[in-house]
């Protein structure tokens, strides 16, 4: 009796994003990292009306919806900018990856993927062809991890079904 | 098949956004973080957040309605203290969103966004006004049936669901490629709320019931 999925549509921007949503940790949090990138469609064009949700796997002590306090929260939400970019600030996860969900107009079902902060032996990564494996591994530049989501076509991100 | 295929050509925006490769079926280990979910505190949601008719100085124009139901897993167990978010157009079919170009009036007393946490029985309840149908540019003379968008969390990140609730008997159903993207007509009906006289409050508001059933977590397979 499962309820079927429907698209988030184009008009969620006044409802779902909330203040502090992309900031899982407060400014200046020790060891915080930035995870950023773009969402691109099958023509390589930016997707300006996507919404991403990041989950570290640890609930933490900071509010999900009401940020504030010095602690960390495991959940973040970020709408893409007109140029398709998103940006999260988070504590590093306990394991090698972060869970990511992508919602957008034109996506009837959200797509799920993982952002691996470094390459290494891993049951999921090891099951993929090398060029597909590479789509799940963020490019590191200091404390900034870059991870693009390609919904379709060349370099298409690996999406997961659990 | 429960969910719509992401490539549903009748809904044009899917053409360049639907992944071309099937999702990789992955047997998550018990430590996989996708088997857990954020936890929401009651202090994070305001008492008026679930009443979309009381978020401004005046009352919104339109037909006042109550929408209530339960969030359940596929064994019928309630999902407690979970976040339910809704958003919708106003009675004239216009969103309070800067991107909405439909030349219908905005309502200064209606934003059309609400949220609440489910109670111990998995129940949520919103008071709102019935949204209007609205045109979109998918194909000539395209109109969306009246709907309320729903966003629901389960106990695992894999259960996360965004969907839309429709109203019974809407003549636009057969013409809507988004609703029709759900391939099985029996499953599609689950998106239609039921009018409920027991939810209806005399001299006040019509009542609709809409339950949301989330998928099982992989550990249950
Ligand atoms: Fe809508």
Automatic annotation (TrEMBL), chain A:
Keywords: Dioxygenase, Oxidoreductase. The keyword Translocase does not apply. It comes from the Bacteria. Residues 9-95 form the Intradiol ring-cleavage dioxygenases domain. Transmembrane segments: none annotated. InterPro entries: Intradiol_dOase_C, Intradiol_dOase_core, Intradiol_RC_Dioxygenase, Protocat_dOase_a. One of its GO terms (molecular function) is ferric iron binding. PANTHER family: DIOXYGENASE, PUTATIVE (AFU_ORTHOLOGUE AFUA_2G02910)-RELATED (PTHR33711), PROTOCATECHUATE 3,4-DIOXYGENASE ALPHA CHAIN (PTHR33711:SF9). Belongs to the intradiol ring-cleavage dioxygenase family. This is Protocatechuate 3,4-dioxygenase subunit alpha. It comes from Planobispora siamensis.
TrEMBL record, chain B:
One of its GO terms (molecular function) is protocatechuate 3,4-dioxygenase activity. SUPFAM superfamilies: Aromatic compound dioxygenase. InterPro entries: Intradiol_dOase_C, Intradiol_dOase_core, Intradiol_RC_Dioxygenase, PCDO_beta_N, Protocat_dOase_b. Pfam families: Dioxygenase_C, PCDO_beta_N. Keywords: Dioxygenase, Oxidoreductase. GO terms for biological process: 3,4-dihydroxybenzoate catabolic process. Residues 67-95 form the Intradiol ring-cleavage dioxygenases domain. It comes from the Bacteria. Belongs to the intradiol ring-cleavage dioxygenase family. NCBIfam families: protocat_beta (TIGR02422). This is Protocatechuate 3,4-dioxygenase subunit beta. It comes from Planobispora siamensis.
């Amino acid at each position: 009796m499962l309820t079927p999925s429907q698209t988030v549509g184009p008009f969620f921007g006044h409802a779902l994003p909330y203040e502090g949503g992309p900031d899982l940790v407060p400014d200046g949090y020790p060891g915080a990292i930035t995870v950023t990138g773009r969402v691109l469609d099958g023509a390589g064009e930016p997707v300006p009306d996507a919404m991403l949700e990041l989950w570290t796997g640890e609930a933490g002590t900071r509010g999900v919806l009401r940020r504030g306090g010095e602690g960390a929260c495991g959940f973040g939400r970020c709408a893409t900018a007109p140029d398709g970019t998103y940006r999260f600030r988070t504590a590093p996860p306990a394991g090698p990856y972060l869970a990511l969900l992508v919602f957008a107009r034109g996506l009837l079902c959200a797509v799920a993927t993982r952002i691996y902060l470094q390459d290494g032996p891993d049951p999921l990564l090891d099951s993929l062809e090398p060029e597909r494996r590479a789509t799940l591994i963020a490019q590191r530049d200091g404390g900034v991890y870059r991870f693009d989501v390609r919904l379709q076509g060349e370099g298409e991100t690996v999406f997961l079904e659990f | 098949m429960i969910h719509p295929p992401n490539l549903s050509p009748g809904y044009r925006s899917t053409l360049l956004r639907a992944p071309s490769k099937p999702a990789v079926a992955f047997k998550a280990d018990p430590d996989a973080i996708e088997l857990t979910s954020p936890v929401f505190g009651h202090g994070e949601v305001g008492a008026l957040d679930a009443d979309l008719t009381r978020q401004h100085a005046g009352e919104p124009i339109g037909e006042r309605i109550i929408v209530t139901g339960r969030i359940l897993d596929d064994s019928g167990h309630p999902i407690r203290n979970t976040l339910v978010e809704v958003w919708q157009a106003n009675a004239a079919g216009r969103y309070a969103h800067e991107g909405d170009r439909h030349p219908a009036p905005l309502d200064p007393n209606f934003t059309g966004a609400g949220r609440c946490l489910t109670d111990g029985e998995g129940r949520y309840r919103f008071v709102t006004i019935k949204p209007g149908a609205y045109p979109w540019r998918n194909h000539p003379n395209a109109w969306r049936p009246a709907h309320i968008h729903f966003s629901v969390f389960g106990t695992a990140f894999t259960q996360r669901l965004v969907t839309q609730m429709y109203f019974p008997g809407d003549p636009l159903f057969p013409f809507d490629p988004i609703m029709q993207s759900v391939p099985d007509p029996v499953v599609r009906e689950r998106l239609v709320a039921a009018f409920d006289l027991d939810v209806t409050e005399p001299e006040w508001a019509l009542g609709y019931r809409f339950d949301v059933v989330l998928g099982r977590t992989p550990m249950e397979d």
